[in-house]
């Protein structure tokens, strides 16, 4: 299966899907890099419409009252730890800053997933042998 065969992504907030336990809903939590620096806040979760699994985090940073915020999305596979109020990833602030620009239209185009996943150093979720990270014990 290639990227074109992978399911489309949709924001959890725009879907009929719900997270079964509020403890597992990481929206609103602070994202920190591997050095503990704050990167932003998780605004939404992008799920695939085939399996209903979270594939990317939409992270917003900067701005005032939501105006002028920078947004990026990163694969759920980058998560290393989840606590009650924060999510840790295995990247540096500098690496995340160089990520492909956030474009909500590109999120819905399957052929763009591979480049984003590659940038973060994770394999494609549609590849044979892929194992979804276990919550809350990520790699």
Automatic annotation (TrEMBL):
Q: Fetch the Pfam families from UniProt.
A: PRC
All copies of the PRC-barrel domain together span 23-95
| Source species, domain of life | Bacteria
Q: Which PANTHER family match?
A: BLR1072 PROTEIN
Protein name stated in the entry: PRC-barrel domain-containing protein
């Amino acid at each position: 299966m290639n990227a074109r065969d992978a399911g489309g992504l949709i924001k959890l907030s725009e879907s009929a899907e719900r997270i079964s336990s509020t403890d597992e809903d990481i929206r609103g939590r602070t994202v920190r890099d591997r050095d503990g620096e704050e990167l932003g806040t998780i605004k939404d979760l992008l799920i695939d419409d085939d399996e209903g699994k979270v594939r990317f985090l939409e992270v917003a940073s900067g701005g005032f009252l939501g105006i002028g915020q920078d947004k990026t999305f990163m694969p759920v596979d980058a998560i290393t730890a989840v606590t009650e109020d924060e999510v840790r990833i295995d990247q540096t602030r500098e690496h995340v800053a160089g990520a492909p620009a956030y474009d909500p239209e590109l999120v819905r185009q399957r052929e763009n997933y591979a480049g984003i996943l590659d940038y973060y150093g994770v394999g494609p979720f549609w590849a044979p042998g892929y194992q979804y990270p276990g919550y809350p014990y990520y790699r």
